[in-house]
Amino acid sequence: MRRFDLLRSCGVLAAGLALVGCPEPPPPCATHDDCGELQFCADETFCLDVFDRTYDITMVEATVPATGTTGGPWDPEDSSDPDMIAVFGIPAVFDENDEIVEPEEAVQTSVLDDTTNPMWNEGGEVTFRQGRAFTINLFDFEGDGTATFMGGWIWETDEALVQLVRQLGEDQIVGSGSFSTTFRIDPPR
Q1: In this model, does residue 130 exceed pLDDT 90?
Q2: Residue 83: which residues within 8 A CB-CB, separation 6 or more?
Q3: Phi-psi category of 44—alpha, beta or left, where left has phi over 0 and alpha has psi -120 to 50?
Q4: Among candidates 39, 34, 61, 65, which has minimal Cα distance to 50?
Q5: What is the DSSP letter of 113?
Q6: What distance in Å separates the CA atoms of residue 185 and residue 54, rounded to the nearest whole number?
Q7: Which domain holds residue 159?
């Protein structure tokens, strides 16, 4: 009769074998200060890397001025407020020949007609990657399928993205002049 030592390790059942390459468990933490500079403290339990992780991001709302950039109505043809749409995610990276090196990863909200204060509460998944920016842009969507850029925000550095992630689950409000938006990053899966 053969005797087998069964060992459960890294989710694999092994028979008398020493498994190598098993990942170390994440370090424990109580706060973000307990983690490395590119990590966050998940549920006050353990440190996780910020990058190469998918987050659920929700666009809550935005506020834009009552008048367009020319001082008149956003939609001069019918003197109405803008038909607002938000696009957020990771912009594409281009080389010196304007060839795409890294593709865009973007999420788009629905269009909310005739409003300077859209309330979306819509979102999608975005994977943060080290060395890549995160953007939120607001547009006035036109009936012909075109959109006019209204304003936006960019987080260009790894440190800026780490700070965003460390505010998981909290509404984030960013603004510039009379433009503002509220969004939320929820924990990764």
Answers
A1: yes
A2: 75, 111, 112, 113, 114, 140, 141, 142, 143
A3: left
A4: 39
A5: -
A6: 10
A7: 54-186
Token reading at 91 = 């912009």
Are β-strands 12-15 and 134-141 bridged in parallel, bridged antiparallel, or unpaired? unpaired
Q: What is the pLDDT of residues 74-108, one digit of tens each?
A: 877 777 899 999 999 998 888 898 888 888 899 99
Residue 97 is part of a domain; what is its CATH number? 2.60.40.150
For residues 4 and 142, the model is more confident at 142
Rounded CA-CA distance 160/154 in Å is 9
- Distance of alpha carbon 65 from alpha carbon 38, whole angstroms: 36
β-bridge mates for residue 183, sequence order = 59, 172
For residue 21 the two structure tokens come to 């390459």
Total-model pTM:
0.81
Round the average pLDDT of the chain to a whole number and report it.
84
The encoded tokens of residue 76 equal 């001069």
16 lies in some domain: no
Work out the average pLDDT over 144-149: 86
- Taking residue 165's Cβ as centre, other Cβ atoms within 10 Å add up to 23
Domain contains 154: yes
Number of domains in the chain: 1
